[in-house]
């Protein structure tokens, strides 16, 4: 890991550590899911949010938001595919969560992997 990647990771971990509980624990859990599911993505701060990109100099593909609700989002820089089925041509890009159970963790990992496939 390059020194810039290490600094960026430190910034993301610090950003998450400053959140109030229980959000801090949830965001830490989602951060771990993301870096495990797609180890090629590099954590960084993107517009003040924890985010994940293919390198320190490329736009973020996935972001975590700590607003009124916790949010996992795919940025407009990721390749999108229509959802199909009942969602037709809609392209899902954001998911709110309040807890992370096993099924949610698996879905987060699938979403993140789909961004880098």
Characteristic key phrases:
single chain, 117 residues, alpha+beta, Aspartate Aminotransferase, domain 1, five-stranded antiparallel beta sheet, 38% helix, globular
Task: Describe this protein's structure.
The protein has three helices and five strands. With 117 residues, the chain is α+β, with helices and mostly antiparallel strands. The protein has a single domain (3-116), classed as Aspartate Aminotransferase, domain 1 (Alpha-Beta Complex). A five-stranded antiparallel beta sheet has the order 1-2-3-4-5, with helices on one face. α2 (23-37) packs across α3. The longest helix is centred in the N-terminal third of the chain and has 15 residues, at 3-17. The protein is globular and about 45 Å long. The protein starts with a helix and ends with a helix. This is DUF1801 domain-containing protein. It comes from Rhodococcus navarretei.
Any chance you could write out the topology, listing elements then pairs?
Layout: H1 3-17, H2 23-37, E1 42-46, E2 49-53, E3 62-66, E4 70-74, E5 94-97, H3 102-116
Antiparallel strand pairs: 1-2, 2-3, 3-4, 4-5
Helix pairs in contact: 2-3
Largest sheet: 5 strands, antiparallel
Which radius of gyration do the C-alpha atoms yield? 14 Å
Q: What structural category arises from helix and sheet content?
A: alpha+beta
Continuous helix count: 3
The third-level CATH topology is Aspartate Aminotransferase, domain 1
Q: Tell me the number of structural domains.
A: 1
Portion in strands? 15-25%
Element pattern in H and E: HHEEEEEH
Q: Report the mean per-residue pLDDT as an integer.
A: 91
Please give the number of β-strands: 5
* CATH A-level architecture: Alpha-Beta Complex
Strand order of the largest sheet: 1-2-3-4-5
